[in-house]
Amino acid sequence: MNRQTQREIRTITVLGAGTMGRGIAHVAAGGGYETCLFDISGDALEQARSAIFGNFERGVELGKVDPTVAQRAGELLDFQQDLSSAVSQADLIIEAVPESMELKVEIFQSAVQSAPEHVLLASNTSALSITEMAGALDRPERFAGMHFFNPVHIMRLVELVQGLETDKATLLALREVAETMGKEVVEVKESPGFVTSRINALIGNEAFRMLQEGVATASDIDKALKLGLNHPMGPFEMVDLVGLDVRLSVLQRLSQSLGELYRPNNLFLQYVRAGRLGKKVGRGVYAYDDSGKRID
Ligand SMILES: NC(=O)c1ccc[n+]([C@@H]2O[C@H](COP(=O)([O-])OP(=O)(O)OC[C@H]3O[C@@H](n4cnc5c(N)ncnc54)[C@H](O)[C@@H]3O)[C@@H](O)[C@H]2O)c1
Questions:
Q1: Atom of ligand 1 nearest to the CA of 97
Q2: pLDDT digits (tens, 9 = 90+) for 121-163
Q3: What is the spatial order of strands in the sheet that 34-38 belongs to?
C-alpha cells in the first residue's frame, strides 16, 4: 500500500497519560491495536499502567470484559517516555496533553518528525480549534478531533470533529478506529463546544438561573431532570463533578462565539468566587465528605 495514502490503522500512539490519555490507551488496546502510551512524566505513566490494568481486572471480575481480551490488551500495551520511540511505528497519533494550543501544536510538530509518513493525527481537545491546530502542521487533511468522554472505558460516545481541511478518508479511518474501540460516533463540523458541551453548558447555566430566581431547590431541579426527562444526572450533580471552575471557562469561551445565552449566570459566578468549585474541594452546589460522599 502507498505510504502516502495508507489509512489502515494497526498501531496507535497516545500522547499524554493523564485522565483521558490512559483511558484512550485502554480502549485502543482493548480494541486490539498495538498501543503505545507516551508521557513526559514517569509517575503519570506508572499511574496510568496501574489504572489501566486495574480497570481491565475489575471488568473481568464483573464479567464485563472477556479475560482473553484483557490479557491480549496487556500484551499490546507499551509505555514510553521517549517521544521518537513512542511514535516511530504509529499509524495514528491521538493527543491528550493539557488544553493548550501552543503545547498541542508543539507536541504534534515534534511527533510527526519521527512518525511514519502516512500517520493520521487526532486531538482529544475539549474546545480548541481543530482547523487552527491542523493549520500549524503540514498535513491538515489528515487531522481531526476525536473527543472522548470521561471515564473513557465506560462512556460510549466519540465526537468525531471535522476541521475545514480534514478529508473523507481520514474521517472514515477514525470512525472505524472509534467503533473498533467499542464506541458510537457522531460526526461534528468544527464549531464551539461541538454538540455535547454546547448543550450541557446551556442546561447548566439555565439551571443556575432557575435556582437564582427561586423556582425550585437545587435538589428538586436535579430530581426533575432525572425523573421527568430521564437524564442520568441532574445539572447540579453534573457541574459539581465537572468542577465549577472548568464549567466557567467553557461558558466564557462559548459566550464569546455563541452570545448572551452562554453568559455565566450571576449566582454561578458567586459560587466560583466563594471557592465552591465542586466535589474536588468538598463543596460546590452540594457538600461532600472526604470520601466524596454527599452530606447535604
Ligand atoms: N478530563 C476530561 O473530562 C476531558 C474530557 C474530554 C477531553 N478532555 C481533554 O483531554 C486533554 C487532556 O485532559 P486530561 O484531563 O487527561 O488532562 P490531565 O492533566 O489529566 O493529563 C495530561 C497529561 O499530559 C501530560 N503532559 C503534559 N505535558 C506533556 C507533554 N509535553 N508531552 C506529553 N505529555 C505531557 C501530563 O504529564 C499529564 O499526564 C485536554 O485537552 C482536555 O481538554 C478532557
A1: 24
A2: 999 998 889 999 999 999 999 999 999 998 999 999 999 999 9
A3: 77-80, 34-38, 11-15, 92-95, 120-123, 143-147, 157-162, 184-189
Residue 153 CA to residue 24 CA, distance in Å, equals 7
pLDDT, one tens digit per residue, over 86-113 is 999 999 999 999 989 999 999 999 999 9
Torsion of CA 158, 129, 237, 204, to 10 degrees: -120
List all residues 6 or more positions away from 268 whose beta carbon is below 8 Å from its beta carbon.
Answer: 205, 208, 244, 247, 248, 251
b/e 176-202 (16+ beta carbons within 10 angstroms → b)? ebbeebebebeebebebbbeebbebbb
Question: Which ligand 1 atom is nearest residue 17's CA?
Answer: 39
| Ligand 1 center–CA 165 separation, angstroms | 25
State the fold for domain 196-281.
N-(1-d-carboxylethyl)-l-norvaline Dehydrogenase; domain 2 (1.10.1040)
Q: pTM for this one?
A: 0.91
The CA-atom distances, in angstroms, between 246 and each of 191, 251, 253 are: 19, 9, 11
Q: What are phi and psi of 121, to 5 degrees?
A: -125, 135
> If you ran DSSP here, which 8-state letter would residue 152 be given?
T
> How far is it, in rounded angstroms, from Cα 79 to Cα 46?
9
In the chain, CATH 3.40.50.720 sits at: 11-189
Residues composing the chain = 296
CATH number of 11-189: 3.40.50.720
Substitution site in 13, 14, 20, 132 for ligand 1 pocket (most atoms within 8 Å of beta carbon): 20
Query: Which among 193, 196, 294, 277 has a CA at the least distance from the CA of 242?
Result: 277
Residue range(s) in the chain whose domain bears CATH number 1.10.1040.10: 196-281
